[in-house]
Amino acid sequence: MNVRGLGYDVRGRVADRSVLVVEDDPGLREIYSDVLRDEGWSVHAAEDGVQALSALRNGLKPCVALVDLRMPRMDGWTFIDELRRGPWASIPFIVLAAHYQLQEEARRIGARWWLQKPVGIDRLVETVNEACASGDSG
How far are the Cα atoms of 17, 64, 77, 112 from residue 134, in angstroms, in the given order? Predict the structure, then answer.
């Protein structure tokens, strides 16, 4: 599904078609960003939670955040805690990791969506579309 046709979210608000990609691996960050841009998303990429929080504090209002769990400086767990406590609590997030028990970890932290690395392109696009359309955090 291509997001160009969305226009409005499920609550009737104008949908912001931007994604915050928080991933420390430069190659993966570029791949995720390129794939999502090709699908019509505006993408802001951050190499860790520190950069991602800075972007949010500077006015970025993504429809969804794609968050790797294991990163230097500020990991995904800490970033998600900050996201939930800040004025960005309504931003849905997708947990992303190579952890072999990712499903259990995602449930433990209350994530509604998770993607196991390596991530298939179709699954990435499908999950981002679903999370953005939901408007629910976690």
Answer: 13, 10, 22, 10
